[in-house]
Amino acid sequence: MMREVEPIRYNYKNETAWYENTDKVMDWFRDQDLDFVSMYFGEPDGTGHRYGPDSPERREMVKQVDRTVGYIRNSTENHGLTKQLNIIITADHGMTSIYRSAQLEEITLSKIPGFNFQDVSFHLLDYGPSGMLLPKPGKLETVYNALKGAHPHLHVYKKEEMPEHLHFSNNDRIPPIILWTDPGYVLNGYFPVQFNKGEHGFDNKEMDMKPFFRAVGPAFHKNLEVGPFETVNIYPLMCHILGIQPELNDGHLSATQHMLVTSADGEFSCLCFIIQLYRLLFTSGGLQYSNYTVLVTFLMGFKLV
Ligand SMILES: [Zn+2]
């Protein structure tokens, strides 16, 4: 097993480091006989937060990511791994622009009549669109009633009432009251403390929240475009390619199996290489993946222009 973790003050934008890390991973595959490597890129997430997903800065960062994907493909080739390595490129969320104007009626809990931080023993707020509250004993209804309907773009739910599609009810660690905002709005506690121009964490039905998914390699059909599926289904897909038994999970191989080529003996290649490109957005249609449009095997939820 190989492991490498970024130091605390790490420059996530350094393109040269991305290339070096790619070569290092390819060396591992070739020389260490590894079966699976997961790689993480902290962009264009950081740039999207700071400048907004529709900004020129974010577009430039997506170009940098695109160059790196090209580099990964070339490095695979140069290491003689093209025939063995399955590459999955995906993200764990999307991003949308935050409204910023003097006229905007911001959502700040301390300003909501009837809501009092004294009634709450623990809160998670000021992290963008969502928040959680643990009311003090006997104060659940007071807190809930004060917040429910208090702002047209604020959603307030008791844990057990949460909409099914959010899958956020059945864990002991989830506090009793959950809050989230409509796209474009963020949730503030006492007063606004963060001023990002891009955020994620909104309702997963929103198109801007959808990540993309692409894969290439001997296990996958070529030039195949498939419909959307939930990201939880990637885990059983990877296990299947690697020939290992998945642990108990919420995904199903049936959601992705149609992407796979079945070889004569029913065996799949056992190398899998995951690149997680945080929040790679296609919302403005700017990404070309110029080096390998032909090799892209499928995508999910996004129109490529
Ligand atoms: Zn983020």
Write a concise synopsis of the structure shown.
This protein has 305 residues and is an alpha/beta fold. It is 21% helix and 17% strand.
Protein model, in words:
This protein is 21% helix and 17% strand. The C terminus is likely disordered. It has 2 domains: 184 residues, Alkaline Phosphatase, subunit A (3-Layer(aba) Sandwich); 89 residues, Gyrase A, domain 2 (2-Layer Sandwich), CATH 3.30.1360.180. It has a 4-stranded mixed sheet, sandwiched between helices. The longest helix is centred in the N-terminal third of the chain and has 23 residues. Helix 1 runs parallel beside helix 3. It is built from 5 helices and 12 strands. It is α/β, with parallel strands linked by helices. The structure holds zinc ion. The site of zinc ion (ZN) has 3 residues, from helix 2.
Q: How many H/I helices?
A: 5
Order of secondary-structure elements? HEHHEEEEEHEEEEEHE
In this structure, how is the largest beta sheet organized? 4 strands, mixed
Structural class computed from helices and strand pairing: alpha/beta
> Could you tell me the mean pLDDT?
84
Strand order of the largest sheet: 1-12-2-11
Helical content stands at: 10-25%
Q: Tell me the count of domains.
A: 2
So what's the CATH class of the largest domain?
Alpha Beta
Looking at CATH, the homologous superfamily of the largest domain is Alkaline Phosphatase, subunit A
Shape: globular
**β content, as a range?**
15-25%
**Rg from C-alpha positions?**
22 Å
Quaternary organization? single chain
Distance between the termini: 40 Å
pLDDT < 50 stretches: 264-270, 276-305
CATH fold-type name of the largest domain: Alkaline Phosphatase, subunit A
Number of strands: 12
CATH architecture of the largest domain: 3-Layer(aba) Sandwich
Bound ligands: zinc ion
Pfam families: Phosphodiest (PF01663)
InterPro entries: Alkaline_phosphatase_core_sf (IPR017850), Phosphodiest/P_Trfase (IPR002591)
Protein name: Ectonucleotide pyrophosphatase/phosphodiesterase member 7
